Amino acid sequence: QVQLVESGGGLVQAGGSLRLSCAASGRTFSSYAMGWFRQAPGKEREFVAGVGGGTYYADSAKGRFTISRDTVNSLSLQMNLLKPEDTAVYYCAARQGLRATRLSEYQYWGPGTQVTVSS
Fold first, then answer.
1. Cβ-contact 17, 117 below 8 angstroms
2. Whole-number pLDDT of residue 12
3. What CA–CA distance (Å, rounded) separates 74 from 42?
4. Is residue 46 exposed (0-12), middle (13-18) or buried (19+ Cβ within 10 Å)?
5. pLDDT value of position 40
6. What whole-number distance in Å separates Cα of residue 22 and Cα of residue 8?
7. Which parts of the chain are beta strand (E)?
8. What is the pLDDT along the chain (119 residues), one digit of tens a residue?
9. d(CA 6, CA 76)
């Protein structure tokens, strides 16, 4: 059974940093793209960053966030210069195949980890 589990969320002041991690299990994810999404209260879940055939970012993440594939089955997101508008639940996701930015393209999801940025 495929499982994705996020960790590393928390409360941080604006301008600070957090590193999120995602551990995947249940199969080998070598042929899978993986990504990070987030959902703020009252908003739709949105793409943040992905890796698979390269790395790619939402405009809101460019220059501040860095996604990396630490192993075949683990993913991280280094978030710097955090802003209050980055407050959201962050989700790790995986899909068989390469580059994807739409929710519907991802087959597997973690339960999410809360990131709160105070002003």
1. no
2. 98
3. 29
4. middle
5. 97
6. 9
7. 3-7, 10-13, 18-25, 32-39, 46-51, 55-57, 65-71, 74-79, 88-96, 108-109, 113-118
8. 899 999 999 999 999 999 999 999 999 888 899 999 999 999 999 999 999 989 999 999 999 999 999 899 999 999 999 999 999 999 999 999 888 999 999 999 999 999 999 99
9. 9
Residue reference for tokens 């589990």: 5
User: How many Å is the Cα radius of gyration of the chain?
Assistant: 13
For residues 69 and 99, what is the distance between their CA atoms, to the nearest angstrom?
14
**Token pair belonging to 42:** 């009252």
